Fold each of these.
Amino acid sequence: VLAMCGTIALADTAPAPGATSPATNDEAAVLAAMDRYLAAISASDLGTMASMQTPDGTNYRARALPGGGMEVLGRPNSYRERYWSPTVLVRGSIALVWAPYEFWIDGKTSHCGIDVFNFIKVGDEWHVANSMWTVEPDACPELRPADPASIRPAG
């Protein structure tokens, strides 16, 4: 498991006051980038994941231990991750996606939780700058969507 730590500083590229913002298009583009990234996770496609991350980006993954403390886990198995009901915030060249998700290992549900992804727009493409998530094995019934058609990415 590789983890990179860093910070990204950006100039505000938000539209001038009174200008029309293409928020709807940006939100769709951010979700498309998130879909591609989670599809790469599910395919164990480390090359695509790396190409979609900023060089100084940060990823956090931890699981609480029963007796206390935290454990970082590697994932040599087959896995899949999908999300739904995303909240998307976009301002200029930065965006945030907050969404419930479900994670499978070897075709079986491992856990659900909340994903938080930060994106930065480089040129015309959105890249993952940072990601964090909770690991909640008992939260799936509470978090799963009522409409399975809302689960992303499709498939």
Amino acid sequence: NGACANIETDCGRIFEKPAEWEVIKTGNKAVVFAVGNRMNGLALKTAKKFGDGVAVVNARSVKPLDNNTLDMFNDMPAVTLEENFACGGFGESVVAYYAANGKNKKTVCLSAGDEFCEHATVARQLEMCGLDETNLIKVLNGILKRKGVKKCST
């Protein structure tokens, strides 16, 4: 209906479509699709430790998916990063998209899981769910090891 045709972001960029995602760091071995400000910050901070190996995409919307951006990274293993439930979440949608398009793609979905998370500080809850730098480095090291990339440490 055109109601959301041009959206201006805080940094002044104008996106033509609400579902248009943003590549915030280029990379050539793996990609992290991150949802939300906190997860984008984590992804970017961690990816920088891998040099040119890891790309980061700010998934500005989870529905609809940005098929054009997903297609740009068809040939790279992916990590999805979200502070939501795993079942029915963003990561599951990304995996379903690649499967429906015939891509047998290695994708690791990091999320808050589907279990109750005990009361704690936000940082501790994220750590308990594996949504922290230590775990993201571990996951990326595992993916990149298979692609012959030097490991990164915390």
